[in-house]
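G., the chain you wanted modeled:
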Amino acid sequence: MAKPNSADGRTRTSIQILILAGLCLFFYALGAWQRSGFGKGDSIALAITKSGADCDVVSNLNFETHHGGESETIGESEKPKVFEPCNSHFTDYTPCQDQKRAMTFPRENMNYRERHCPPEEEKLHCLIPAPKGYVTPFPWPKSRDYVPYANAPYKALTVEKAIQNWIQYEGSVFRFPGGGTQFPQGADKYIDQLASVIPIDNGTVRTALDTGCGVASWGAYLWSRKVVAMSFAPRDSHEAQVQFALERGVPAVIGVLGTIKMPYSSRSFDMAHCSRCLIPWGSNDGMYLKEVDRVLRPGGYWVLSGPPINWRTNYKAWQRPKEEFQEEQRKIEEVASLLCWEKKYEKGEIAIWQKRTNAESCRGRQDDSQATFCKSVDVDDVWYKKMEACVTPYPDVNDSDEVAGGELKPFPERLYAVPPRIVSGSVSGVSVETYQEDSNKWKRHVNAYKKINKLLDTGRYRNIMDMNARLGGFAAAIESPKLWTMNVVPTIADRSTLGVIYERGLIGIYHDWCEAFSTYPRTYDLIHANGVFSLYKDKCNVEDILLEMDRILRPEGAVIIRDEVDVLIKVKKIVGGMRWDTKMVDHEDGPLVPEKILVAVKQYWVAGGNSTSSR
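Predicted structure as C-alpha cells:
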C-alpha cells in the first residue's frame, strides 16, 4: 500500500481498512481457533480462516492517526530473521542456573546455586529444542501421578529415592506415588497430620511455600484442598526435580536459600514448609529463618519435618552425633523464640510453629539485645538484595487484637475481596475504585480471550504465566481448579504489586525480563504478556525476551501478547522467524482501539526433527 498523497487518499484508505476490519471480525467469528487431539505433541495448531482477507491489516487501523497520516503495511516488510535450533545438548538449558558457570562461584552459603546469568556476549540466540520423542504432558489430575519419560529422561532419582516413594520408572512413563523423604506412606496422610493443627481445609490457609521441594509432591497433594504452593529447589545433583514438578503441573521454580533474599513480597504465605530440606536454619544468626519470617503472613505457620526434630530417638538412623542435632534444634528454638513464634505441635519428626498476628503480643522482643530489626524502608525491595540476619518489623496496629497488615477473607472469597494493601493505601496510585475497575476490565479481557481460544478453560492449559501481572486481574479472571498462574511482577514496574497478588490468594514472583526466568525449558502451556514490550522498550533486547518466552513455552503452547499496535508489529516480525504461527486480533471494544492482541501457537518440533505448522 503506497502512502496516500492527499486527504482524499487517506479517506479512501481509512474506509477500505474499516471494511476489511469488518470482514476480518466476521471471518474470525467463523474460523476455528484450534483443534485438539492426543497424539505426538498433541497437535494443537492454529486453524485460521483463509477466506481472502488478510486480517493482519486490522492491526494497522489506527497507525495513520498515530503517525501523522502515514501508513505502513506489514506484508511489505522484508523477510524476518530466521532463528536456528540450538545444539541438542541445550535441550534442558537454564541460562541463569547453568551448571558449568555455577561451579565458578563460591560454595559458601550456597552462592554457587543462586542465579548467575550469562553476560551479553554469552547469550544464546537460537531456539532451544525439545528432546526427541517429546509429547504433550498428561492433563491434570493424571499429570500429578504420571510424566512421560521422553519429556524428562532422567532416571537417577528412581534409584536414589527408591525406598522413599518419590518416583518410579514404568515403561514409557515416570509414576509419582506421592511419597517423600518424610512421608514415604504418601503426602495425603502427611497433610492430614498437619491439618490436625493447621486450618488447611477451610480456606484460611491458601498460599504455601515449600523450601527444598524435591519433586513437589507436598504441593501436588495440597491442590485438592484448594491450597496453592510455591515450591522451589536448586538445580543440583538431583538434576530434574523442579522439571518433574512442572511436568506434573505443580507450581515450582529453581531456587535456593543462599545469600540473596527470596524473590517474594513480605507477608505473602499462609504457611511455609521444610521437609528434610537440608537448610541450616540455625546458622548465620538464624538468617534463613528470619527470611522465612519476612515472607510469612502474621498468624501464618512454619512446618519443619525431619532432622533435627526428635533427635533423641532418631540420631542413630541419621548417622550423626546426637550433640550436633541437639545444638541444631537449640539454635532453631532460640531463633523461633526471638521471632516470637509459638510452637503449636511437636510429634514424631514434625514440629509446627505459628507466627504472632502483630508485634503487640511480643513487645518484650524489642528489648532483647539480640533482636536486630531490619532498617530497610521498602521490605519488598528484594531483587538481588543481600539477605540479612535481621527481623522484619510488623506493620503497625491500633490494638492487640488486630492482624498486622490486615485480616484476609478465606479463599475463594479472598480472590475478589479488596486486598488490605489496597484498603490501606499502601500501593501508590491504586484506590479501592481503581482496583475494582481493574478486576472488571480483566473479566472482560478474559471473556474475549475465551472467544479467540476456546480451549482456554478446558484443562488444555495447566501451567500459565502472566509476565506482567500488575494487580493479578488476569489470573483472578481465569482462576480454575484446572490451572494455576505464575504471576510475575517485573522489577522495573512502576509499582510493587506482588503483595496484592498474594492477598488475593494467588501466587507470583519478582523477575526482570532482561534475564532468563528460573525455570527449565518447556514448562508453561500458555504465556500472557500484557504491555511487557512497551514496559521494556529501550531497557533490553526484544529479541532476547521473545527467545526466553520460546524457551519456557511447551511445543504447541499458546501465547497472548497485548500491547500497542506499533509494538506488536515489531514483535510479529521477530516471531515470524521463531516457528510460531501468529495472528493479530482486535481489542474486544472494536478495531478503532489502538491496543491489539497478538495470538500465537508455538509449532511442534524436536531436536533433529521437522516442525509442524498450520500454514
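Confidence is low (pLDDT under 50) at residues 1-76.

Shout if anything looks off.
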